[in-house]
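Notebook, p. 212. Picked up where the previous page left off. The plan for this session was modest: take the two constructs that came back from the sequencing core last week, fold each one, and keep the raw output in the notebook itself so nobody has to go hunting through shared drives later. Recording the first one now, exactly as returned: residue sequence, then the structure token string.
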Amino acid sequence: MSWQSYIKGFKSYLQLEKSLSQNSVEAYLRDVGKLVNYLEAEKLSLNVDEIKIEQLEGFVKTINELGFDAHSQARIISGIRAFYKYLMVEDVLSVNPAELLSAPKLARKLPDTLSVEEINALLASIDLSTPEGTRNRAMLETLYSSGLRVSELVNLKISSMFLDVEFIKVIGKGDKERLVPIGSQAIKQIRLYQDNVRVYIPIQKGEEDMLFLNRRGKRLTRMYVFTVIKACAEKIGLQKVISPHTFRHSFATHLIEGGADLRAVQEMLGHASITTTEIYTHLDRDYLRSTIMQFHPRYK
């Protein structure tokens, strides 16, 4: 079988057996595609079962020389490992050459956050006299109120809104459902949007249940949400580079800073592992460090 046949099988494996999102599947396929391109560039016309650790290490060395940062290298290596794990599952290989492939050690990057004052300023900058402004305010209030991923926001359904009991149902990574609380300000803005804007939009077939729509009656794109946030940041002169994920980071950080239980925040964010959620405790650590630097005699 050719490389492309195995890659096609890998795609089906990720979609059907692993239930990954389309974006995740495409990312894995791009990673394997980089390996294939490397082999072609090096004129290594090897079959899948002929690849050894030496060729894979040469590939890693090349992506490093091409300037990929440590996080990008780690992601690509993760994709290659997943591909070879699939080949082992399918009994294509008896030995996994990617098993000993080492990834660069990553420093734990602390996410950018916004203060409560910056969040309020961004939201207040939206012009509520326009239909788009009313929708955008509801959209960003929801993003911050419930800590949603941007993909979860744009795919939010009316049938998943339980506003009377202040909860929404979210479809997260791997199509996993979770119930997330939603605050009174977000509920107020959503109802204003539904009653005064959405009701007048000519909705396209198949989009009837989508909450946030553009003027043509179709669901919003993730890029559009980026654009809205960027425009708000420019309007208030915010110097930070922010994205929809910044709202999610801020949601989690403000909860942890206020004393919220880490397990509860993990559940609301939809993190599979609590170690992912623990990154949001950085503010507490910074506060403790500044306190000891200020008051401990050996730190003065």
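Okay, moving on. Second construct, recorded in the same format:
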Amino acid sequence: MLSSFKAYLLLERSMARNTIAAYEHDAALLLAFLEEHYQGLKLEAVSLNHLQHFLEHINDLELGSYSQARIISGVKAFFRFLLLEEVVKTDPTELLQAPRLRKSLPEALTEQEVTDIIGAIPLDKPEGHRNRAMLETLYSCGLRVSELTGLLVSNLYLDLGYLRVIGKGDKERLVPIGEEAAKQINLYREHTRRHLKIKDKAKDVLFLNRLGGAISRVMVFNIIKEAATKAAITKNVYPHIFRHSFATHLVSNGADLRAVQQMLGHSSITTTEIYLHMDTGYLRQTMAQYHPRF
């Protein structure tokens, strides 16, 4: 059943592989719990009470509210699949409530902090050109780290100023790339990449490790952490903060929200609107312009 669920998420829902792996893990966690506490219980007999007991179980594991909400999301997807397959006649997750999540604004770097971090990457080693190109691309294009590590040479249109990016759910989008990022990519390809013995599976992958394979997300994380430390940045710096900074700086400089949404690959404008609230200068300007007693 788990194998069928995985195939459904991949082929019919077109979900990203990381999401599929998470949902498969969540369903397996539920099944293991039911086997331990309700041995012999068939899936069609699972009720809301059983699932609430499961929620108590994962809460006892001291998982955070976001982790619990993610698990519940996976369990809900599993039962929707069972309903479609007519394994169950009703969906017991319909009234299952996830823990309330406290929404907080994502942190962003200042323009100077971005410059300092990128400038802290030394170019006296071959991987320096790669690392600088990666960070310039993250910030210039607002990419997710998985999109960065999955960039293909065949999807570069640097002469036209664009990248073809494969985002969540294997959705493609064209993203503009700045001159500095394009320059750093070309320098990396000329000084570093062309000298590597590239593995067959990574022939078309842009950013490679020293062994000629695709660079991992963990390695990108470590590179950014090291550069931030050298730049004496006290904020918690991680790959996704460059995406937040990209969007925040565009909005604060007057970019159209719909254009930012398209570049980020957000399916809903609501997701992009959070960057309006991060731009306090924009809010004060709006108040000064429109409020009669401001």
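Notes on construct two before I forget. DSSP finds 14 helices and three strands in the chain.
Flagging for discussion at group meeting.
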